[in-house]
Specification:
alpha/beta, six-stranded mixed β-sheet, 22% strand
């Protein structure tokens, strides 16, 4: 298998040193990610493109390779090609026919050629010769230069011929790691996760910060969606997940702050805590999912008052986005179900919230707040690597049993439906049920309590997280099936 990866256009217009640095970062990121698929996959770079070359022995992994390329920031598009040594004109036709000859039946088509290097023919000569041969020797309806059913694409680069089989759009943006890191405040809902995705897409290493307002299930959900986002779009770089217990802060606000100012003051407390943690992580910017006037605390006046508590740069990628656009993006990146099923939690809800907070009045209300409570919350923060989020939130529960042999247990595949559909779990002599993670808590209560169940996901992180939660809920008939490594045929 052979893939040709094209850089995002904004990379190609950079100065030569910046373009070189960014393209090298993209190559390094792809090497890390594709090595996890199979360590025999090669990633090669030149000034114009990156080539991904996989031996025939890993042909069964083509969809996984395409999945990596489609979700890695910095890629404009990528093509799956068959590459041949460049021969004479008729040889070019024969090589094209070997790929496209049986795919043109009852279809109109045209041939398009991109050429670089010195040759004794023009691109138009190749288009006419190959197009004529395909029209004569296949079951095509005929050549149609405008809006054909099929466009046969050829790339001639010096002494190589690439016959394009498929063209896929990439994610765009800049390669992860080319920009300074940020700390994103996430609640698990639509907005904060889409904002985090946008910074990751722009090449920014994005750490996650969660303020727990008192709900264990909510923290479980936020850990899960944060891990999903990182694993799908940013796992070339390790990041942190930070959890801050904020229930006492909420209680202090509810007790001592005027109702109309509670929302603004809660956001100010969060920014104060986020600034302290960003300094600890040596991060120079914060990210939030706020959009203008979406809720009362997000008016321009209120945001200005909120931001006044910190000198740290606060980025708001969604600031002028409509909610429908945010939800559509969440659907496209696979986080809509997470947000729609995020557990409810009790927060600070004002009856008549102010939309035009005055800094002097806010500071007066805060004078009644015991800042020792905020300091205690910051000191109790828990920092984990994102791939270690299976560690317990609070308290002790029995260890999660991880097994390789399922025996008589029922396997529950909890992966996201898109991932499960792409790579269905097939096990001989084992019963497999598909219950997506966001339906598991309710569904598990309806299962046969006399059966043993093993949860499965591709890397074993989310399955252990959910098994731990079920054990904490009192179930003892649950464990984890160890994820299988990519199989290498002999």
């Amino acid at each position: 298998m052979h893939f040709v990866v094209k850089f995002f256009p904004e990379i190609t217009i950079k100065s030569n040193p910046v373009r070189k640095r960014m393209s090298k970062q993209l190559k390094d990121n792809l090497r890390i990610l594709l090595h996890r698929v199979d360590d025999r996959i090669k990633v090669l770079k030149d000034w114009e493109k990156i080539e991904v070359i996989a031996p025939d022995a890993v042909a069964h992994l083509s969809e996984r390779i395409e999945e990596v390329l489609a979700h890695t920031p910095g890629i404009a598009n990528f093509t799956r090609v068959q590459q041949f040594p460049l021969g004479e004109m008729h040889d070019i036709y024969e090589k094209t026919f070997s790929v496209w000859g049986d795919k043109l039946d009852d279809k109109t088509f045209c041939v398009r050629v991109k050429r670089s290097g010195k040759h004794d023919f023009q691109s138009l000569d190749v288009e006419q010769y190959v197009g004529g041969g395909l029209n004569k020797n296949t079951g095509a309806k005929g050549v149609k230069l405008k809006n054909p059913d099929v466009t046969v694409k050829l790339e001639i680069r010096h002494d190589k011929l690439n016959v394009v089989e498929e063209l896929h759009q990439g994610l765009g943006g800049f390669p992860l790691g080319t920009q300074d890191p940020v700390l994103s405040l996430v609640s698990g809902g639509f907005d904060s996760i889409v904002a985090s995705y946008m910074t990751m897409k722009r090449g920014i290493r994005t750490h996650f910060l969660f303020f727990n307002l008192g709900g264990r299930q909510h923290e479980l959900g936020v850990k899960e969606v944060s891990y999903y986002l990182w694993n799908r779009y940013g796992s070339s770089h390790r990041v942190k997940f930070v959890s801050v217990p904020f229930d006492e802060v909420v209680a202090e606000i509810l007790t001592n702050v005027d109702d109309s100012h509670m929302g603004v003051i809660l956001k100010r407390m969060m920014l104060r805590a986020a600034t302290a943690i960003a300094n600890e992580l040596e991060v120079d910017a914060l990210v939030t999912g706020e959009a203008i006037a979406q809720v009362s605390s997000q008016t321009l006046k209120n945001l200005s008052v909120i931001d006044s508590v910190t000198d740290t740069l606060v980025l708001r990628p969604l600031i002028v986005s409509d909610k429908t656009d945010i939800i559509r993006t969440a659907r496209e990146i696979g986080t809509e179900e997470f947000a729609a099923n995020m557990p409810e939690y009790c927060g600070v809800i004002s009856v008549k919230p102010t939309t035009r907070a005055k800094r002097e009045r806010v500071e007066e209300e805060e004078s009644h707040f015991d800042f020792a409570v905020l300091d205690r919350a910051i000191n109790q923060r828990v920092i984990q690597n994102i791939d270690q989020v299976v560690e317990e939130i609070n308290g002790e529960v029995p260890d999660v049993e991880v097994v390789s042999d399922p025996g008589q247990a029922v396997i529950i595949d909890i992966r996201h439906p898109d991932e499960e559909e792409m790579d269905p779990l097939e096990l001989e002599n084992s019963q497999v049920e598909v219950i997506p993670f966001y339906r598991l808590n309710r569904a598990f209560a309806t299962l046969d309590p006399d059966r043993q169940y093993l949860l499965y996901c591709s890397r074993g992180v989310m399955s252990r997280l959910h098994a731990s939660h079920l054990l904490d809920e009192g179930y003892r008939n649950v464990g984890v099936l160890r994820p299988h490594l990519p199989h290498r045929p002999e």
